[in-house]
Fold this protein.
Amino acid sequence: MINKIKKINLNHSFIFFFGVNIFCVLFFKYSNSNISSIICLLLILTIGVSHGSLDHIKGKKLLGLLKLKSTYIFYIAYILISATVLVIWILLPAITLILFLIVASYHFGKEDTQFLINNESNFIQILYFFKGFLIILAPIYFHFQETIAIFKLLLIDNEIFYLSLNFIETNKVIQVGIIFSTLSSIFLFLKNFEIKKFVIFLDYFSILILNYYLSPLLAFTIYFCFLHSIRHTVSLAIVLDPNSVANGFVLFVKKALPLTILTGILFFIALYLLSNSYNLDNAILKVIFIGLASLTFPHILLEYFLEKNEK
């Protein structure tokens, strides 16, 4: 099963890399075309969010490992964590955003790479963080002002926060971070060297190309939906049916559909409420990033505790 996941993910990296190049060339050639933010939202609410829609199954598994019988414990804890993130974001948006970016960097780096790595040492965990950090740094480097505008929409109204960002921009801290991310990819490639681990660099260049040509929202949407989420979905499909990926995918869709639909409804309710105070594009940006933060924290905590207790 592990070998099957590796093979599919390797092929996926090649397909994604060439797909990104073709899409960006066409987008650059027809630069007058405008991809609506509503399309980004729909992609994230379907392909993107669905990869976490089996968390209730993982939650039941975790409860079993902890010898807890009531499934309500999982649902209550998951909802409370998600709601707490929303409340803290409203009260302390700058701190919550920074924590979200740190946690997301580690999550993206690990989930996108661990199928190639057999070592789970503390040093490898640090490398995962710096590898995933590129997803945060690239839009800031290529589209600094546009990224700052997104931060402001996310309720960030902190003078010290923006002074820090200006210091980062003028002192080339972002470039240093990208160098560290590059070095982390090189270390992960060389660690227990296998030529097939070259796909690490395919993912690396895909992220850079996306953020060079596209807006931060569109670049993130393509990465999140078509690299990160699909890779996670394929792994879940193989777990559901090791003998048939196609049947495993059908099972995944059936099991993920209820929570995906529920999440979509909640997001659109939030969008409707925010549209009374913001224009549609700005409301969508707020719903996407604050909504994803509220889902990411409980999702990552579940993955952590499940992995820890399985060991």
User: Anything to note?
Assistant: Residues 2-26+38-310 form one domain.
